[in-house]
Amino acid sequence: MDEIIKEILIENKMMLHEIQYDYKTYFTFFDDGKEDYYVLLFMSYDELKILNEDSDFKLEFLVNAVIEEDIRKKHLKEFEAVNLDYNLSFILILNLEEETDLILKELHKIEENYRIAKKYILPYNNNDVNNLKEKIKSSNAIIELNRIAIENSSLLNNKNETWYKLLMSLFIKIPFLNYIPLNDNQQLKNIKNEINSELNDSEKIFVENILSDFNQNQDVEDFLLNNNLFENETRE
Predict the structure, then answer these.
(1) Could you tell me the CA-to-CA distances from 202 to 58, 188, 190, 196, 206 in Å, in that order?
(2) Is 34 in contact with 49 (CB distance < 8 Å)?
(3) Are strands 37-44 and 118-124 parallel, antiparallel or unpaired?
(4) How many CB atoms lie within 10 A of CB 47?
(5) CA-CA distance, 69 to 58, in Å (whole number)?
(6) Rg for the chain (alpha carbons), in Å?
(7) Are strands 118-124 and 25-30 parallel, antiparallel or unpaired?
(8) What pTM was estimated for this model as a whole?
(9) Mind listing the pLDDT tens digit for each residue in 203-221?
């Protein structure tokens, strides 16, 4: 999992610093003056449990202590990051081989606690990571993840294909990983086809006329008025 995340960071041209903490930890941010900062911590759920057992905190408050006392105060001062206190996000990439509703509820509580930093929890198991890696065909992780997401979109509601659930979680839990259509023109064409499939012939002509005549810089209300597209009476 570390390899995939690291490639995403590099391809986004983010500054990447490995923090010397007890577990693999990265501090990363964009090199363009944008005041968005991320701490990524890699550990297993078993390690998190042991850490929690050795403390007097509930799990959600333990994570706050780890971010503030163990990482931010001890390791991030040297970067002199502007407005770090207000723009820090924490991403926990958590190896969780056997998830239960109780564990997921615990993790959700961590995410809901916005103190110290905005939090994202990305649980995964090794089998799903290996299945996802097998489908990556080139070294460009962002393009590949997008391609795999599009080509396998039919698996979205298939509970047995848990590797695809992990792929979707990557897009949800990694704030700087964006969904990018592989071919914008083809994507628009597909959307247009879906719309047209719901229209009759006269409605298709009507829509084509609107698309061909409308200038994106034009006021929408003026366009509708000038083309007699307002209804004379309000529907009841």
Answers:
(1) 63, 21, 20, 11, 6
(2) no
(3) unpaired
(4) 14
(5) 16
(6) 24
(7) unpaired
(8) 0.75
(9) 656 556 555 554 444 455 5
